Amino acid sequence: MSTDSLEKPMRAQVEEYIVSLQEQIVTAFETLDPKAGSFKRDSWVRSQGGNGRSCVFACPSDDPTAAHDSILEKAGVNISIVHGVLPPAAIKQMRADHTSMPLPDRPEGLPFFAAGLSLVIHPRNPHAPTVHANYRYFEITEPVKKDQPTPEQEQPEVLAWWFGGGCDLTPSYLYEEDAIHFHSTLKKACDKHGSQLYPTFKKWCDEYFYLPHRGETRGVGGIFFDDLNEGPHARLNSPNSPDAAASRPTSPAEIFSFIQDLGNAFVPSYLPILKSRSSISSTPAERRWQLLRRGRYVEFNLVYDRGTKFGLMTPGARIESILMSLPETARWEYMSEMGEEGTREGTLVEVLKNPREWIK
After folding, report:
1. Which residues lie below 8 Å from residue 182, measured CB to CB, with a gap of 6+?
2. For residue range 205-240, what is the model confidence (pLDDT) as tens digits?
3. What three-state secondary structure class fits 62?
């Protein structure tokens, strides 16, 4: 990997940023609803290498029928900074997911480093949308030969590196102004780094968060991207193109700056929506619909989500943190009548089956 200056390694820069961003986001939620209690902050160490901190909110569950008035029902804002060796099965999955970066075959596995922040927020009110965000950095390095130990100050040879991430909104009830605000905030952050980024990553998000067996997207979208590095990208124009619209970040420093702008955009993109919708009165029928939509959320995360599948394949995976994304309660009904055309629920379903461009 090329270096743009004599700064500290990118690993260290990403780690410092996600630690700071996690605290910023958790504090914003705690400030919004100070009577609800604090997030549980759980620091952990991975025996195979690395550490992390899970910040989780959940109401006491001694009495599942008890009513709670907190804005959030379940939420998690997690960071992990881990390293180790990817086994062949995980390398195979990674090769399938990252076709633009061929990785060598190593029967003994490949050393890796990964650092990222992942969050999922499930509000209590059916009118307040669920939100997900994830920003991450990954390195694959050449194995260090046992008879040639690498000095601690010397970095191992990097075979591949990339940034990935995204942020998406999943409402149970459609408020167009919320979708417009959410997408506008993300677009503003993207546009600072190139005009092709938002439309490309918005389309990718609609394609990625899609349930083929339901024929609908998980929510009203946002952005999704992966494999951002200095090389060619399957979805982006070459940065060497004479077209000014092809400009995009390519160096580690430039892409990291892009990631920081997106991470810093999370609170202004979502907190105003959450604050506004959490005060709307709701009915038992609306709660029922919310739980049906959360069932769809579970289906996507357990059947299709690449991050969940990769996490479960990684040795020493922290299962509690990986499955933090799942809602506390969900519902499935046989041939439910909810969501029919002409209803408020049906208005959402129409958008999920036919994704919109929210910014004209």
Report:
1. 169, 220, 222, 269, 270, 273, 358
2. 999 999 999 999 999 999 999 999 988 888 998 766
3. coil
Mean pLDDT of 28-32: 97
What is the distance, to the nearest Å, from the Cα of residue 10 to the centroid of all Cα atoms in its chain?
20
Whether residue 141 contacts residue 180, with contact meaning beta carbons closer than 8 Å, is answered with no
DSSP character at residue 127: T
Q: Are 211 and 301 in contact (CB under 8 A)?
A: no
Query: How much of the chain, in percent, has pLDDT values that exceed 90?
Result: 68
Active-site positions read: 132
Instruction: Supply the DSSP symbol for 323.
Output: G
Return d(Cα 38, Cα 2) in angstroms, integer. 42
Q: Rounded CA gap, 206 and 184, in Å?
A: 16
The pLDDT score that the predictor gives to residue 153 is 52
Least confident of 7-11, 95-99, 142-146, 304-308: 95-99
The H-or-E segment that residue 103 falls in is none
